Amino acid sequence: MKIAVYGKGGIGKSTTSCNISAALAKRGKKVLQIGCDPKHDSTFTLTGFLIPTIIDTLKEKDYHYENVWPEDVIYQGYGGVNCVEAGGPPAGAGCGGYVVGETVKLLKELNAFDEYDIILFDVLGDVVCGGFAAPLNYADYCLIVTDNGFDALFAANRIAASVREKARTHPLRLAGLIGNRTNKRDLIDKYTSAVPMPVLEVLPLIDDIRISRVKGKTIFEMAEKAPHLQPVCDYYLNIADQILARPEGVVPQDAPDRELFNLLSDFYLNPPTVPQPQGELLMV
Question: Which CDD domains match (predicted)?
Fold first, then answer.
């Protein structure tokens, strides 16, 4: 099964992806996570360091694919999750989508795609061009990470549009949304009422998750010495279990940009009124 994780930049995709990969490994699956962000820090939480990228390795080998071995580009992370970083072109030049394509090409030549139960692509930001939508060409499911805010849901809608477009020619489905770092989900619910799609999980704002990212550890690794974090692990195990159940998923019918802009803006401009409790009657 191949999964592509998308979401607005800075929303916590990489941390979420690493913890989902670790959760899938906890369920006994052989997992490969492919970082598709030119920052090449997708797998830092699994490995604890910035691993060499595919592009770095190809450059060292003078782009002779036949001289690249799996151990040159695949690194083992926490829980036995294997990790690859695609890397990216120099800032301001080239195409990230091209790099993703070359990464998949190389991994196929190494027969790496046949060894794993789950391959998870962690993709940069919201979809802004065909290049960054490239991982959807290889995926069975897309997951969208969002928070309960306007910008993240606006980006989610753009990603949903890309899934809808790719689903015309690929057996791709949107498995659902993952709410991240939010104690409320009212705007998420408003969006999904207009653009129906499953919500797999909503994770509250938990400082330990942010700290685990900084330490280069998954929350599962931290929980080994801090058992009080097990309930946090359960959020990711729940997502993993839903993925392994092979959800039906949806081909989303995204909202037109202007309609969505008005829908989400209205939430802030005309917030829903909360019924006030009735005061007790004073009996005289």
Answer: Bchl-like
Whether 130 has a binding-site annotation, put simply, is: no
- Tell me the C-alpha to C-alpha distance, in Å, between residue 91 and each of 9, 43, 88, 96: 17, 20, 8, 10
95 is in an annotated binding site: yes
Q: Which positions are annotated as active-site residues? A: 8, 13, 39, 126
Burial 251-280 (b: 16+ CB within 10 A, else e): ebebbeeeebeebbeeeeeeeeeeeeeeee
Residue ranges of domains in the chain, CATH in brackets: 2-265 (3.40.50.300)
d(CA 181, CA 147): 6
**Over the stretch 255-277, which tens digit does the pLDDT of each residue have?**
898 998 888 888 888 776 766 66
Q: How many residues does the chain have?
A: 284
Q: Is 80 annotated as a binding residue?
A: no
